[in-house]
Design goal:
The structure is a single chain. The protein is α/β, with parallel strands linked by helices. The chain folds into two domains: 160 residues, Rossmann fold; 78 residues, no CATH class. It has ten helices and eleven strands. The strands form two sheets. A six-stranded mixed β-sheet has the order 7-8-9-4-10-11, with helices on both faces. Strands 1, 2, 3, 5 and 6 form a five-stranded antiparallel β-sheet that branches. The protein is globular, with a radius of gyration of 18 Å. Bound molecules: adenosine-5'-triphosphate and magnesium ion. The site of magnesium ion has 4 residues, from α1. Adenosine-5'-triphosphate binds next to β2 and α1.
């Protein structure tokens, strides 16, 4: 059963239909790959489902039975939704470890920084930073990290959100988490996504690397021009003629 479904949602920008009457569902506890050529609407769909922009028409249905016509940014975390950004967003002027602690404590950013952190928060932050290989960098400001390390810190924040400290995220959108990463870093991200699945979380993965899609995904949704082009298991969806044509036609 889908944990989240879109019903004919539409979003246009200056006459371009970035998402065009799209109805798709994301199965609970599964990893769904969201693929399609550049500009096909993948990031826009994530933006709509995380309240970054309002949609023009249509609705979103949660398995918790609510149907909503509008998703407001501050309500999104109440629905258990969290995401990464294609262009990585962090608290740049804060140390690496504080970027994790603010997620773990679920207070507002300012009060969580002045709080004397409890030992279990510090232990958890250490565990998360070791998993994403950033423990050595814990006191560095986020802005000083390399591109790959920044992506790993964002993944670390996701990991912290999945572990239940005051945060009940259960739907995770990843927008091209592997782009620009070295192979060892890719392995870390794959490990995090597999860990989320083992915890029963729902993952939506935007990724251009088809080998990674085949390796990780249970189901694949292919977009083209904001519409559903194909869906199915990775083998089924990727074998479709129209999918190959859409990629070759780029
Ligand atoms: N904020 C915006 N303002 C204007 N147009 C936008 C905006 N965001 C997206 N678009 C347009 O919507 C369409 C879909 O873009 P989107 O970023 O969702 O594609 P994508 O599938 O994520 O592509 P990529 O693989 O390159 O990341 C494109 O035509 C894009 O130019
Ligand atoms: Mg995109």
């Amino acid at each position: 059963m889908p944990i989240l479904e879109t019903k004919k949602i539409t979003k246009h920008f200056d006459g371009v239909y970035a998402i065009d009457g799209l109805s798709v569902g994301f199965e609970e506890g599964k990893i769904t790959g969201l693929i399609g050529p550049n500009g096909s609407g993948k990031s826009t769909l994530i933006n709509l489902l995380t309240g970054t922009f309002p949609f023009d028409k249509g609705s979103v249905v949660f398995s918790s039975s609510e149907e909503v016509k509008e998703l407001l940014p501050y309500e999104v975390s109440d629905y258990g939704i969290t995401r990464t950004f294609q262009d990585v967003r962090l608290f740049e002027q804060m140390p690496v470890i504080d970027n994790i602690l603010v997620v773990l404590t679920k207070r507002n950013v300012v009060s969580s920084l002045f709080e004397k952190h409890k030992k279990f928060h510090l232990d958890k932050a250490e565990e998360v930073l070791k998993k994403v290989n950033l423990w050595e960098k814990r006191d560095e400001l986020a802005v000083n990290l390399s591109y790959g390390q920044r992506k790993l810190l964002e993944i670390g924040r996701i990991l912290a959100m999945s572990d239940g400290f005051g945060n009940n995220s259960n739907i995770f959108f990843f927008d091209e988490p592997f782009a620009g990463l070295f192979p060892e870093m890719r392995k870390i991200v794959i490990g995090v996504i597999e860990h989320l699945k083992q915890q029963g979380k729902t993952v939506v993965l935007v990724e251009h690397n088809i080998d990674i899609i085949r390796e990780l995904c249970d189901h694949v949704i292919v977009l083209d021009n904001g519409k559903l082009l194909a869906e199915g298991t990775p083998d089924e969806a990727l074998a479709k003629r129209e999918v190959m044509d859409a990629y070759l036609g780029e």
